[in-house]
Each structure stands twice: as C-alpha cells, then as structure tokens.
Amino acid sequence: LKEENAVLRSKINKLQILSETQADKMRKLEKKLEENKIKEEKEAQDLEAMVQHVEQNLQLMTKRAVKAENSAAKLRQENALLQAELRNSKLEKEALRAAQAGWATAKQNAEVALQLLLQVTTSSRASIRQLLSGAESLQLVADLLKSIDRISEVSEDGQ
Fold first, then answer.
1. For 48, phi and psi rounded to 5 degrees?
2. pTM above 0.90, yes or no
3. pLDDT values of the chain reduced to their tens digit, one per residue, 159 residues
4. DSSP 8-state assignment for residue 102
C-alpha cells in the first residue's frame, strides 16, 4: 500500500508539473494571442488610414481631372470659334484679294487669327496632355485600391 501510495504520489507530482508546464504554455500563448490582436488592430488602423489617404488623393485627382476636362472642353470650344474665325478671315482675305482693296489688311488679320489659333491649339494640346496624365494617375490609384482589396482578402483568408 505504501508502495502504491508512493507511485500514485509520483504520478500526481508528474501530473502537477505537467499541468504547471501546460499552464505556463497557455499563459504564453494567451499573451502572444493578445499581442497578435493588438498588432492586427494596429495594422487594420494603418490600412484604414492609408485607404482614407488614397481616397482623399483620388477625390483630389478626380477634381483635378474634372477641372482639366472642363478646361479642355472650353479650349476646344475656343479652338472651334477661332477656327471659324480663321475660315471667315480666309474668306474675307479672298474677297479682298478679288476686289484688290485692302489686301494687306486682310492678310494681316488672317495672320493674327492664325497665330491666335496656333496659340490656342498649343494650349489645348498641353491641357489634353494634363488630362491624360490625370487619367493615368487615376488608373494608378484604382489599381492600388484593387491591390489593397486583394491584400485584405488574403489577410482575411490567412486568419
């Protein structure tokens, strides 16, 4: 009976040691779990802040693109008006040439209109390039947002 008690006490001691070891492991795992939760929360907050920053940039770029588009439309209208004016100037020039009266004045007017048209055309092209650049920037932001969504999906799948 003493021997059996000694064996049982030995088993109890071993089980207590095992229990304490497992309790330590459990505490360590709980601590690690808490640290991971905090880390994930911080990453989520950082990601949210980045998304908000990207959204703000996207809104700003959208405003710029709309402004550039409006400017380009206005320049196209101005260009069309100047082209019509140029056509009228050319017709006037031909009429004056046919009549041989005021030929030099008509030529000068046509040249001025042509210079204005060239200036507006140059300005229109620059505005259109800016519009294209803004569209490319918007595409880049859209791709970035798609990437963020994929990262979020991968993170959620990994949990």
1. -60, -45
2. no
3. 888 899 999 999 999 999 999 999 999 999 999 999 999 999 999 999 999 999 999 999 999 999 999 999 999 999 999 999 989 998 987 886 677 655 566 677 889 888 988 898 888 888 888 888 888 888 988 888 888 877 766 666 665
4. S
